[in-house]
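Q: I'm writing up a methods section and want to include an example of the input and output format. Could you take the sequence below and give the corresponding predicted structure tokens, formatted cleanly so I can copy it straight into the document?
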Amino acid sequence: MTAVEPQLPVDDALEVGTTATTAVKGRSRVPWRFLGGRAAFYLFTLWAAITINFFLPRLMRGDAVDQYLARNRTVTPEAADALRALLGLDTDKSLWQQYLDYWALLLRGDLGISLLHGLRPVTEVIGQALPWTVGLVGFATIVSFAIGTVGGAIVGWRRGSRAEVLIPITTFLSTIPYFWLGLLAIALFSVNLGWFPIGKAYGVGISPEFSIEFIGQVIHHGTLPAVTIIIASLGGWMLGMRNMMLTVLDEDYITVAQAKGMPNRRVLWRYAARNAVLPQIQSFALSIGFIVGGTIVMEMVFSYPGVGKLLLDATNAKDYALMQGVFLVITLSVLVANILADVAYAFLDPRTRQTEA
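A: Here is the clean output for your methods example:
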């Protein structure tokens, strides 16, 4: 008789064949080459951004002192020279020396002082505006991403159903210029109906403090701009997720899962949506990074005291230190967001870990 060879355990085709569940067996080694390459890339990007951040404002005509003198003609020439020396704009130093001094101050955490805000430190000025932008734009971005991704997955799963009418509606709303959408929202809900205030972050006469009244004022004033941001950005997330779902649903492992009788909910969220969401991660990371920059148009329409409006005011006043500080914060936020996106992508897609290892 022929000896029967023992049967080796066969892995489930679904667990092996999907992009999101393929496991790297064996002892994985640390991908030092990949980590070193990514670290070098991000460090070079940071250096380039800071260098451009320094030289670009100085290519503009005039400076912050000239703008200040135009508004205050009683300032003496000696005081103007002292202001230029204080801001690092004195012509006694070469541009290269100013660049080196800028790096020295930057490494010490000194972003300079803002002439536009009464010689206050730039870190203090940005620190006051940053929570408003992160709280409003960050909340709206996360909500729009979550609703758009989940909605796009459901619409893609139920292709050909009535739910697909959401795609042209949300896409149409996303094509409307944001300032126009914001003005329409103000005219309808603030002027005509009186449900929400026209602008500002809180009411007149209310002092910022941790109290129920102040929190209620912030929520009341921030609801309309937040909803406007969600409506304006929802179409892109939903359309992108729906298109990726249509691609993933044609894969073999989805057919195998359905043939094995798996519940539709498990196939949808465990296999289809988990793979379809991967391309959305990078876009979401960029959106998270640009949250710090805020939405300048939104903050101008609703008179919201965020970083976007702060950057616009600094640009008009040619306040170099404040412009550089805001650009630096935006750059760092984008880089950190991309790093987190790389980590999240590698976690969600084991093929990335296998290739890097």
